[in-house]
Amino acid sequence: MVQILRSLGDRSLQQLVDLERGLVNREVYVNPDIYQQELEQVFARAWLFVGHESLVPNPGDFFQSRMGEEAVILVRDHKSKLHVFLNTCRHRGMKVCRYDEGNARLFTCPFHGWSYDTDGRLVGVPHFKAAYREELDKSAFGLHEVAQLCNYYGSIWATWDPNAPSFPEYLGPYADGIRWCFQSLDGEDAGVELFRPVMRWRLPCNWKFPAFSFDGDTLHGVTTHRSINVAAIGPQGERKDGDRHPMRATFPQNRYEMSSRALGHGGHNSIYELPGVAEYVDTWQTEPPEVDEYHRQAREKKAKKYERQYLHGGGALVFPNVNIQEERILQWHPHRVGITESWRLFQVDKNAPKVVKDAQRRYMMRYAGPAGLTESDDMENWNYAHAASSGTIAARIPYNFQCGLGHEFTDERVPGMTLNFGIAEENQRSRLRRWLAFMEAGSWNDLYPVKKD
User: Fold this and answer.
1) DSSP states along 278-325
2) pLDDT digits (tens, 9 = 90+) for 69-82
3) Which one is the CATH code of 48-148: 3.30.499.10, 3.20.20.70, 3.40.920.10, 2.102.10.10?
4) Which of 8, 316, 422, 452 falls 20 to 30 Å from 100 in CA-CA distance?
């Protein structure tokens, strides 16, 4: 096993991640010491997706989320301000909230009864007069809050590091693309809500298997998902020979593996030859006609809004562990070196009629999640790959990330992006490059971008 040093000196990571040759040692995925270092170097520093404002619409509403291995509480206090707190009592560490979501006036620890207001203040301590003689400084023992929180068009992000740059700076050239993923179908900002409950399940693999592959591995589709396309799980049914994706009108574009090398974000994105959006094609053949009508009217409004704007780019994997798409949010939380807790959250227009929301829900249930036909294929690959990489001999053999190596290029229409042909592994190399930067950095002063004063 590789020894990982905690100093700023040689941690042996440069030898494990050789992106010049496109070779990555399997220890990066299976070594428990590396995994422990990730929790400190990556997840304690990076901006992480926590939830959405629609999960906590009212004062007192809370939603239990995660940041790395640790449980956090997203809560709207009684003055309607949003907070994210570590879900642990300041007395002996017990969870103060053991429900996935709900509404509360206080969070009371079931161990010794310390109670916290929804703004995090410690407001109740049993025997405060008799045992503590009123000497305990309650103001110093409130719930531990994140260093920075950002409500980005309804999506909630947080970081434990006060020296991290702002979230829009963290997104860099993907700021617009992530914004669009939280628009309603007609292009209204912050126009969506999330379906409830959140899908949660665990996978027997390292978190990087799904996180660094998703939206960066087009090459697997033909082999892995062949049977799904034949099954015609898309909303059009068997029309046009069926598919797992909705039907779309032809629109002049070139599709690439596109990523920010400096930031690690990336996706299957397009550069368009025309401004605006494509015309709508009726595709909800398995649903009532009102569904197509709603989508058609929304598309007409969006086309008018963006008739002069080129919508290059789109959704992406936001480093380190969440993929933001227009219809779903895929997040992979590290749980152990060989266990990942996978979450799925799904956007839908918040002002859409029930028939439209129900149609979208049914489609996503067929497509995604632990019982969805698409992701069940993916899980088979990741699970077996981790097990087959963990042996003494197997761990000595590097992974090959050479597809498209040396053929990357840039385009002035998408500044800050690195492009490669559609089935290259450019995005995966960008994520590994960013991972290496985080793992070797002493602080955010050693990373890009540095926080502006």
Assistant:
1) PPP----TTS-HHHHHHHHHHHHHHHHHTTT----B--EEETTTEEE-
2) 999 999 999 999 99
3) 2.102.10.10
4) 316
